[in-house]
Amino acid sequence: MKNEFDFIAIEGVIGVGKTSLAKLLTERNNARLVLEQFEENPFLPKFYKDRERYAFPTQMSFLASRFQQQQEMLSKDLFQQMTISDYIFEKDRIFARLNLEDDELALYDTIFKIMAGISAQPDLVIYLQSNVDRLMQNIKERDRDYERDISRSYLKELSDAYNHFFHHYNKSPLMIINTSEIDFVSNEKHLDYIEEQIFNQPIRGNTHIHITD
């Protein structure tokens, strides 16, 4: 029996392919696409050069942008048609806990808790995992100017933080896909399998997807 979702969110560490998968699934299912507007954050390039100095303004800029998107999604009643996004609102706090000082995090949390209570909640979250070597390779290949200063150690920290977050995540059904050895962009069979698991298999609680040729 085919699953019906109003809102699917795809998550994962920088470079894991969440935007690529969101776009591919959107095209295949005639869905609405909502993408994180990270390129509009004026502090992001500065953050990758000086993490300590620019962490707070970078985080607050992302929080404001993501919340505005959430409100637009709800006010425009996008869910009359299936919506696929490349992030969940709660992910913002993963970065906050990793990058902010205690006093900054306390102020951030005060604002975040208000916003999180009135943000859109996905019917399914797809968490893409990958090893750090593959993440570094993907980031190098796409060669975005502001990502050239991302360090391996920061990616490792971020990957560990994501794994911890989703190990405890229970707000919606969760599908976990390890992408270290697959290529759903170039290999249509891999994409077909992922789509089959999303839309034609029962999803309850946490589901782990493993793909082999």
UniProtKB/TrEMBL annotation:
Pfam family, one: dNK
Binding-site residues for ATP, renumbered to this chain: G12, V13, I14, G15, V16, G17, K18, T19, S20
GO MF terms held by the record: ATP binding; deoxynucleoside kinase activity
Domain Deoxynucleoside kinase per the UniProt entry, residue ranges: 8-200
Highest rank taxon of the organism: Bacteria
Keywords, ordered alphabetically: ATP-binding, Kinase, Nucleotide-binding, Transferase
InterPro entries referenced in this protein's UniProt entry, alphabetically: DCK/DGK, Deoxyribonucleoside_kinase, DNK_dom, P-loop_NTPase
Cellular-component GO terms for this entry: cytoplasm
Protein name (database record): Deoxynucleoside kinase
The keyword ATP-binding appears for this protein: yes
Keyword flag Nucleotide-binding: yes
